[in-house]
Amino acid sequence: MDRNDENGIDERSFRFYRDVLQFVEPIPAGPKTNGLIKQLVDAAGSIGNNRDEALGGSSRKEFIRYNEIALRSANESVRWLRACAARRLGPREKCLALLDEARQLARILAQIVITSKLRSEDSGEDPEPREKGKPKPKRKPKPKT
User: Fold this and answer.
1) What pLDDT is recorded for position 69?
2) Three-class SS of residue 127?
3) What does pLDDT average to in each consecutive run of 10 residues of the chain (145 residues)?
4) 3-state secondary structure labels for all residues of 124-144
């Protein structure tokens, strides 16, 4: 996986954050918009930040966990962009393009999480955190093909 691939998740998440910053810049500050804009910018930036943490993680469990957080941030970005569209904040076409990109990022991240969890199960690793002292859940036997 090449982190500098212009169509890869890491570069796309960076461009998404950059584009969100450009999108919100001309929106007038106000009591009803300030919170929404801050939440959108925070969520958009969190996608790439958590991908960086995932790639720097020391275990598959950390990799999965940080990708799950990045996925939540992408979903949160969708929510805030929907609010911007509903309130007619910023250029409509740009908002809709960002909304589409946020949804695509969320789908990519969901696939990364699902695939990583399946690979962890196949390798016998436990991708799910559990409370200290609780036994590891029993794995279902693989179906015979």
Assistant:
1) 97
2) coil
3) 75 97 95 95 97 93 96 98 96 97 98 92 58 50 55
4) CCCCCCCCCCCCCCCCCCCCC
Tokens of 59: 């275990």
User: What SS3 class is residue 28?
Assistant: coil
User: Which amino acid, 63?
Assistant: F
| Alpha-carbon distances, residue 95 vs 44, 58, 88, 113, 142 (angstroms) | 13, 37, 9, 27, 45
Helix (H, G, I), strand (E, B) or coil at 27: coil
Quote the pTM value.
Answer: 0.80
Give one word for 126, left, alpha or beta, with left for phi > 0 and alpha for psi -120 to 50. beta
Structure confidence at residue 130 (pLDDT): 43
Contact between 73 and 43 under an 8 Å Cβ cutoff? The reply is yes
- Tokens standing for residue 58: 């020391």
